[in-house]
Amino acid sequence: MKNQELIDYLESCGVCRVCQLRYLKARGTEYRDMQKTFQRLDVKVTEEDEDGPEENTPGEQQPEAKKPRLSICSTCLGLFSKDFQTQLIDGILQSDFAKYDSEGIVLAISLPMTLQLRQLSMWFALQRKFGRTAVDDNCAPDVPIKEAVKLILHPIVCAQLGKEYDSNGLMINIDLRHSTEAADVAKLVELNKAAFPAKAAHQKRIEISRGLLEKQYQPSRLKADLFEKYLPIPPAAVNDPLQLQSIELAGPLVCVAGRYRKLSRELSHTPWVLHGQRILEDSIEEIIVRNVGKHFSDTPEKITFMSSGREDVDVRCLGKGRPFVLEIPNTRCSSMTRQQAFEMEQAVDLTGKVSIHNLQVVPREQLTHIKTGEEQKRKYYRALCVLEEPVTLEILQKLQISESFDIQQKTPIRVLHRRPLHTRPRTIFSVKTRVHRENPRLLVIDLVSQAGTYIKELVHGEFGRTAPSISSIIGKPIDILALDVVGIDLDWPSDVNNADNVDKC
Fold it and tell me: What is the model's pTM?
C-alpha cells in the first residue's frame, strides 16, 4: 500500500487532511508543516496544506475564503478544523480565563464515543480496501485522536493564548457533543449484545464506555460484517460538526509551605467540635488558611492543612516552629512575591496566637517531607513539672540521662476516643533537668524523644500505662504543669526571610 493510494482512498471517504496525516502516522511537529510532511511522504500537496492546521491569532480579522468550505471530516467530525479552533479559542477567552495567572495550561477534552466508532469503521474500511496484511487486526492504523489532540490542538491553543503546556497548570475542561451520539450509542448497545452474547446474558444493564470500546472493539475480536449490520463502513458523512457543549476551568493545585509557632495555650490545631458544638472559637488551621488562602483561592473551605505532627490545645510550639503546608486546589493565583508572603506572615502574627515564617510556594513532590519517616524524627520538649515535696539532689541526678532508653506506651486514655488501643515502643534520647529558681518543688525538664511520644504520660506514667516514666524513674509522683515543643528535627521547608524582600510590587 503506497502512501498516495492510502490518501486517495481516505479523501474519497471524506477524511480531512489533518486526519490523513494521522493515518500516515505523523508525529510531533510533522503536523505544523503539513506541506513539508506530505512531500516527505511522497503525497501530492494541495493548497490546503500550505498553512497547516494553525489558526490566526485571537482578534485578528479572518481573510475571506477563497473557495467553498470543505465538508466535515468523517473521522474527527471537524475536531481539527480551523472553524473549531476559532470557536474553541473564542470560548476560552469568553470564560473566566483572564482571572487565572497560571503560565501553563492543559486541555482535558471529553470526546463523544461516536468518534471511536468512526475510527473502528475506518479501520474495517481500510482492511477491506487494502487487505489484512497491510492493515493489522490489533494495531490501529491511525494515531489515536486523544494523542493527536496533544500533538495538534495543544500547541495551537497554547500559542494563541500565550501560555506554555503544563500538565499541572490551569486545566481547561472541554465537553464536546455530536448530534449522532445518542443514535450511535443505541446501535452500539445492540451490537454489543450480538457480538458478546455470553457477557450480555449475565448483565442486567450493559454499561457502554470508552474503556469498553478500546478493549473489545477491534478487528481481532469483532467481524466487520457484524459491525456493518449496525453501523456503516466506511463512516457516513455528516451535516454538522462537533458542538462545544461547555468549557470549565480548574486552576492548578498550589502548595504553600512554612513554619508556625503556636503562642497560645488555648488554641486547637484544627477546628474543635464536640457533639456538634464548637468548643474553641479559632484554630491554627483556620488562622493560617484565613490569612494565606484568600490570596490564592475563592474557596478556602477546600484548602487542606497539613503539618509535621500537632500539639495539644494547652501546649505551645516555639523555637523555629512546626513545618506545615497548605494544599490549595483550583487556584486563580499560583504564585506570590516575597512582599506578599511577608504581608501574610504579618497578618497571622497580629492574631497574637500564631506566628508563621518561611512562607513559600513549593512543588507538590516536596509534600512527602511532612509525612515520610514521621516516627523516626526527633522532637524537643521543655516541661514544667511539679513534685509533692521539694526537689532533692538524688531526684535531680536521676533525671540527668544522656543515653537513650526505650519505653512502652499504651494509647493514653484521653485520646482513646480517636486512637486505637495499642502499646507503642518509643525511644527517649535524653533527659536534662534543673530546679526552677523560684520554687523548689518545680522542675524544668528538657526532653528529646522519638516523634509520636505522648510527653504528658511520659512524665506522670498514667497509672503505669507508660513504662518507664519520669515518675517511675524517681520513684515519686510528679505531674506536668506546662509543656512546650521547642524543636522539630525536620529541615524543611528551606529558610526564607520574606522580611528582606527584593521583589517589591
Answer: 0.80
